[in-house]
Amino acid sequence: MEELKGYLIKGSPLLALVIGYFAYAHWTFVDTDDARVVAEIIPIIAHVSGVVDKVSVVERQEVKLGDTLAQFDDRSYVKAVDLAESGVSSAQAKLHEADVNQAKARVLLKSNALTQEKFAEIKNNFTKATGNLKTAREKVETSKLNLENTKIIAPQDGNIFKKYVDDGAFVSEGQNLFGFVSSGSRWVIGNFSESQLERIKLGTAAKVKVDGFTGKSYLGEVESIVKRSTPVYAQIPPEASGPDVNKSSTRTVVKIRLLNLTAEDKIMLQDGLPATISITVR
User: Fold this and answer.
1) Both ends of the chain: CA-CA distance in Å?
2) Cα 216 vs. chain centroid, distance in angstroms?
3) Angle, helices 75-110/116-148, rounded to nearest 10 degrees
């Protein structure tokens, strides 16, 4: 008994230190391991159908705004532009002819050499020709846009995290071509309890660790705090749910903007990676 008392007395400074540390951590930080990395993902899809002539990038490749990612066989789209432009020329000629006829008809109408019915018919032809020219010009714009869309370019600086097409593949309009992650900001969002919310403020400093990145941590700050209610019935065994099955619990989603990231950091911090957040609250 005396030996045990002596051991406790000798160990009390260390025990006090440990207790003090955990007390300090409790009052200085709030933590959650229910968090994940968030990046701006931009799906790159095909706006026209066709055969892919060449894919110019590989997965995990960094690209700059305007870089060519892929090129479709554009021969049919070039022909469509030529055809549409010839349609404009034809419509312009017909409008000119209708305009001349309408001018002549006005003169004849004034001299009573033309009936009102015939004049109305000639005027209607002019209106139709005007509309046809407008339609022809719209076709040119559409065909030029389709031709432009045969060249797939990077919408901004970023990284190709997934490639869904290869050279020679036929692609349908609307098909996903690349998974693209912007090289802009990275965030981590985490769920905190309502009691923790009282201690979290906008702009508060945070430290983030991402699963699998041993020894690496990232600095950040609280950018937004959003409360949301989530049903808890799914977490309760059916036999224990009872009459309160529709209860819900309130969780707080806190969004942390990561700071001072390098280009390599942004490549590594892919959307969805699990993380741990520690927010300084004192």
Assistant:
1) 42
2) 27
3) 160
**Do β-strands 158-163 and 205-210 pair in parallel, antiparallel, or remain unpaired?**
unpaired
Residue 277, judged by CB atoms within 10 A of its CB (0-12, 13-18, 19+), counts as: buried
User: Is 199 in contact with 28 (CB distance < 8 Å)?
Assistant: no
At 121-164, the pLDDT tens digits run 999 999 999 999 999 999 999 999 999 999 999 999 999 989 99
Contact 119, 103 (CB under 8 A): no
User: Does some domain include residue 253?
Assistant: yes
The H or E element that residue 194 is part of is: helix 194-197
Q: Are residues 200 and 139 in the same domain?
A: no
State the total domains in the chain. 2
- Record the pTM: 0.68
pLDDT at 232 over 80: no
**Residues β-bridged to residue 253:** 191, 226
Q: Which CATH number characterizes residue 247's domain?
A: 2.40.30.170
pLDDT tens figures, 169-226:
999 999 999 999 998 889 999 999 888 887 888 999 999 999 988 889 999 999 999 8
Q: Give the per-residue SS3 of 206-220.
A: EEEEECCCCCCCEEE
CB atoms within 10 A of CB 252: 19
What local confidence, expressed as pLDDT, does residue 220 receive? 95
Q: What is the DSSP string of 133-192?
A: HHHHHHHHHHHHHHHHTTEEE-SSSEEEEEE---TT-EE-TT-EEEEEEEEEEEEEEEEE
Can you give the pLDDT at residue 241?
40
